[in-house]
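During the reporting period the student researcher (J.K.) took over the structure-prediction task from the postdoctoral fellow and processed the backlog of single-chain submissions. One of the processed entries is reproduced below for the supervisory committee.
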Amino acid sequence: MENRVLNGMQPERALYYFEEICKIPHGSRNTKQISDYLVSFAKEHGLRWVQDEVNNVVIYKDGTKGYEHHPVVILQGHMDMVAEKTKESPIDFTKDPLELHTDGEYIWAEGTTLGGDDGIAVAYALAILEAEDIPHPPLECVFTVDEEIGMEGAAALDPALLQGRVFINCDSENEGILTVSCAGGARSDLELPVSIDPAEGKGIHIYVDGLVGGHSGAEIHKGRANSNKVMAELLDRLLKLMPYRLVYVRGGQKDNAIPRYTMAKIIVAENRLEDALTEIDKIADALLKALPKEETKAKITKEACVCRGRAMSIASTRKVVGILNELPNGIQSWSKDIEGLVQTSLNLGILKTEGSTVSMSFSVRSSVNDEKTALTDELKAIAAKYGAEYSQHGDYPAWEYRKDSPLRDRMVSTFETLYGRKPVVEAIHAGLECGLFSGKLPGLDCVSFGPDMQDIHTTRERLSVASTARTWKYLLAVLERL
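J.K. obtained the following structure tokens:
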């Protein structure tokens, strides 16, 4: 008998499929295998399906008895996950299954992200599609690829594949919250050419580590530190005290994840090594004291290391340090209409040195299109100032609030019936595919919801078992009432 970590837990079939999904590599840009799995599922269950050129999958199911002629409902989630892991984890995201664990209260993956965002949406849909005893209208279950890197799957999906105009997205992480609007966004990439020359002196590795990190949309309002920007400030302060040459700087793996770890290597004159080590400690102490109180595990360390004899020129070092400190990051403005809602932000999520190029990748978000444009224009101007190349992709529109929403009203009343209280109805700063679909499907009535998850996009990600069960029952109750 197969040993299943989640065996016997409720909702049984949804968690069965969630565990199946966790066995299949499905990081962004590595979704062919999970896409083919969904096609195999549809074939096995005799359901009509479409798999498009980018590996999006749509599976269709007729309404159950008495619901045959009800309006078509679209159930939607994305099949890719943010593939983050600890430095110690041996997992190869291109081929290895996740190592699931549970204590009965939460589900997590050892040393890696879990992919509850958005594997639970896929699992819910598969459990509904296979069931014969769940009342529901005609369904179009849409599984998109590469949501986490700019919603590329949703952008590529042909709207002619969908007839429904009632749209339930399961890509939210807080039970009891119905999301009805979200920010638009884009990814901005800057590539700065640098000169690499022979160098003499002593090498120093510098590490910024242990930051909290998190989702650059859903958690940007918490003011968490960005390791790339902390390193940038350290390098700037040190450069004002003594000359050095930068060998490399790198940190972060995803543009939409607030980076937790950044490292750099510099070369100093041999007779300045001890001075440099001392000054780095002083700067580190000052920077750590200035971090948000939540950053209790943050640390900045350094060590002398072997000098390989090549480094950026002094002029290039100044350009890299200068652009990193001039580039904006974090919250840029707050909404004047919705209290506590971030209106515009950006996150320097990826910093890399490869050969003679230093590259920087941002996730840019705003619920106001003009502000998004103004922010990307600012990035372009800074890039031009330092001689960097700017590019932009993965643009997606804001999902605007709809005053008249029968779906929202039905989901609110169903929630009140099941929970005995009103849900929270809110707009969010994080991007959702609902914005793209609302642009593709005129008149779309859309709501996003989901079970409780903690620390998505980080190796501390947790999925609540009890909340997953309650949210499953809620989804079925909503479908029964549509």
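The committee noted the following: The domain at 186-396 is CATH 3.30.70.360 (Alpha-Beta Plaits).
J.K. will present the remaining backlog at the next meeting.
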